[in-house]
Amino acid sequence: MQKDQLFTRRRLLLAGAAAVGAAGTATGVVLAGGEDTGGRAAPAPGPQARQAPKASAFRLQPLTGDGHPRAAPPALKVRTEPILKIPADGRHMMLTFDDGPHPDYTPHILDTLAKYDVRAMFFVCGEQVEWNRDLLARMADEGHVVGNHTWTHPLLIRMSRKKIHSEMKRTSDIIEDTYGERPQWFRAPYGAWNRNVFELGAEMGMEPMAWTVDTTDWTTPGTRTIVKRVEKGAAPGVVVLSHDAGGDRTQSVRAIREYLPYLIDHGYHLTVPRHRPV
Description:
This protein is α/β, with parallel strands linked by helices and about 280 residues long. The protein has eight helices and eight strands.
């Protein structure tokens, strides 16, 4: 069975798990070009949140991984719920994409974001990065936030702490080697969180990010349906969940071409978390 088919099958079987931890609230998220609106400051997402990302000079030099020990990430306070929203001041919204990068779909999504000079978050799977490092490098070049979405997209709440740690660490390692910095945001596959996941994420310096509006594009409901879900759910502080891999994402590619100009025309600022000052 193809990898994309496996992703789709997992989602169909486990879609109900996305409700786990859905009562979380957003505190301390700092937006690019904005201010912290409450709580403690969120961790630095990486080079992508600095000002005016232009061309390849924006990306840090990736590490080789040979003979250079990795710096220990700063320990974070352990949350009990994921972040579901961002500060609503100034009609900010955030677009996020899971399961990639994928050579057939991610480039088109990146092209649309570039057309409108918009940054987004990409929660990537390590096994996808392994075959598509150029796309991760492009995300860094163009100012997007890259987050950790595990190596193989498993249901973490059914795994041992050791296996969860491996899934998360391997992905952070390959992101650092390819992208230039370790990820400082994490999203649990299927939105399924438990204490081990929160604790390990915090130990690795990553904040847990969920979403407000789920397009359910993984069910391929039709391009127009995806567009309507985004437009209907649009509101200050909303985090939109879409996908750039894990199945046929042609509809997702077409949908962003329609809803992104709509959001901009209606006064929404599509943003990403800001880099934490060193």
